[in-house]
Amino acid sequence: MSVKFFGQFLFENGVVDRRQLKDAGDLMYWINRRIGELAAKMGYMTRQEVDRIHRAQRSSDMPFGELAIELGVLTREQVEELLAEQSTRQLRLGEALIELGHLEEDRLKQLLERFDADQAAYKPENLRIPDQLRGSTLFGLVLDQVPRIAMRTALLPVKIGAYRDWTAGASYEYKASISIRAEEVLDLGIAADEGFMKAVASATRGPEDEELDREALADMLLAFLNILAGGARSALEDRGKMVEVTAPKRDELPSAGFAFDFISITGKGLLISATR
Question: How far is CA 137 from CA 61, 233, 275, in A?
């Protein structure tokens, strides 16, 4: 058993094939419009302004609407209207499969119950944490923010899986590390495959941007790690703690600690952590 998304669960159990999953994904894409696309459609922003906000999100974990307000592109009232409009358009995978005729409603309910049971161990409240990290405030903040920041900066769902002892290098192409010092030091690393990095890139680039090479994708991983560390720092500083964060290092990972698997809808990687 391993952490997975509902679509992967359906495919592995022979419920749907890859073409049916793609059809459902395409339908969800067009119905579940991003707030920037809605803003452009409703005439609140130009396409260039939407691209500008997406670029700004590369170095910030602020949601699109909040960043647009801060930069003076949208008003608070416009963002609230857009979020309300967006909430009426959300289509989940199972619903998309039903609409396309690939699944029946009663069958979906049964499959969701099986999926919830299969993935119960990976719910945040049930996730196993090694004793050495369980009492770490810094690690708790980081673990909580990984899915949140991936969704905020790249609209990318991420799930955290099981951990294992970490003593060796990762085979993933993209690697970076950073250290956060407060009352303790947390050495943090991320190793990710190309699928994950391209998904991050696709949500933060304008349509006129050229395909990113390895160097640019590696820079995006550094930026993602910086945002993650910055979020933990802000949370601790709000509590009156003194925090220092080192500059992220490319192609380096902590030499020891614990590695948590994580997956996105298009890629995967490792979150590596150690306290000292």
Answer: 20, 11, 11
Predicted confidence at residue 203, as pLDDT, reads: 65
pLDDT tens-digit map of 37-92:
888 888 999 988 988 887 777 667 678 888 899 999 999 999 999 888 877 767 88
Q: Is residue 206 over pLDDT 60? A: no
User: In the numeric block, which tokens belong to residue 181?
Assistant: 């010092």
**Phi, psi of 175, deg, nearest 5:** -140, 145
- Gyration radius of the chain over CA positions: 20
Strands (E), the chain: 158-166, 174-181, 185-192, 244-245, 249-250, 257-264, 268-275
Which CATH number fits the domain 128-275, given the four candidates 1.10.287.1080, 3.40.1550.10, 3.30.160.620, 3.30.559.10? 3.40.1550.10
146, 163 Cβ separation under 8 angstroms: no
* pLDDT at 172 (0 to 100): 92
| Backbone phi and psi for residue 36, each to the nearest 5 degrees, phi listed first | -65, -40
Whole-angstrom distance between the N-terminal and C-terminal Cα of the chain?
31
